[in-house]
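The instructor's notes for this session suggest beginning with a concrete chain rather than abstract definitions. Hand out the sequence below and ask the class to guess, before any prediction is shown, which regions might be ordered.
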Amino acid sequence: MIFDAPDLATAPRLMDKASRDYADRAPKAVERLEVGFEDAIAVMALPERYRKRLRTTNGVERLNEEIRRRERVIRIFPNQVSAERLIGALLMAQHEAWSTPCLSEHG
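After discussion, reveal the predicted structure:
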């Protein structure tokens, strides 16, 4: 709803509508959203193709999980360079995945 706004100018109008729609049913939630609205829509300043990926921290959390999973297999790195090499390889793979368009962007 608000996060599906096509641009920054539309988001406040959608916020006002959501505030009116939910004011009676969820006044505390509306209040919290109003307080954090500017922070919540900061992602709208980014190009549209990045918004879905960056609205949440899911990507960062998934990357951290993958680093931990690989680290558990290795258990002890022989030196710092080997740890940096592993993390660098994972970051390059993530960069490659993010450099290609999402399938949902084409449908």
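Then share the key points. Residues 70 and 86 are 8 Å apart (CA to CA). The chain has two domains: 10-54, 58-105.
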